[in-house]
Amino acid sequence: MLPKSSQRVADVFKIANQVAREYDQEYVGTEHVLLAIQREGTGVGATVLTRHGVTAEQLRYEVDQLVKKQMEETWVFGRLPGTPHFKNVMAIAIDQCQQLEAKEVCTEHLLLALLKERGSVAFKALKNLGVLYDDVRREIPELTSQP
Q: In the chain, how many domains are there?
């Protein structure tokens, strides 16, 4: 049985849609999910980013640079509402949730999934900011065991 998503994850996806509109894009990508995790600000995912010294300004700058570079390299029209990377992230987040034996998919599972989705804008931005999967994976049990 697949775990359900937390209300916080639903909020993150709403914010991701807003972020995509701010970028004037007609799809939701990993970069929008990453920015939304940080912007939502109350989940374990946001806490991990803060612990790694990632500020909203740094994250936005890194994403902006990567998106600009990506747009210069390829001109793709007719994108789907969710990019292939975005769709993979949801599947990976469910897997991470199950591995951590959590009851529902939360922002920490989304963050781990973004860190595993190589080639995505979010993965590159996090890597450039020094946020790595193994470090985050070690932190999560400590952060989620708090009352």
A: 1
Q: Is there a contact between 19 and 39 (Cβ–Cβ < 8 Å)?
A: yes
Residue carrying structure tokens 């951590």: 100
Residue 25 is part of a domain; what is its CATH number?
1.10.1780.10
pLDDT tens profile 44-69? 888 888 888 888 888 889 888 887 76
Contact 108, 101 (CB under 8 A): no
Global confidence as pTM: 0.70
Domain range spanning residue 48? 4-144
Residue where the block lists tokens 């806490």: 47
Do 110 and 36 contact (CB within 8 A), yes or no? no
Query: What CA–CA distance (Å, rounded) separates 87 from 84?
Result: 5
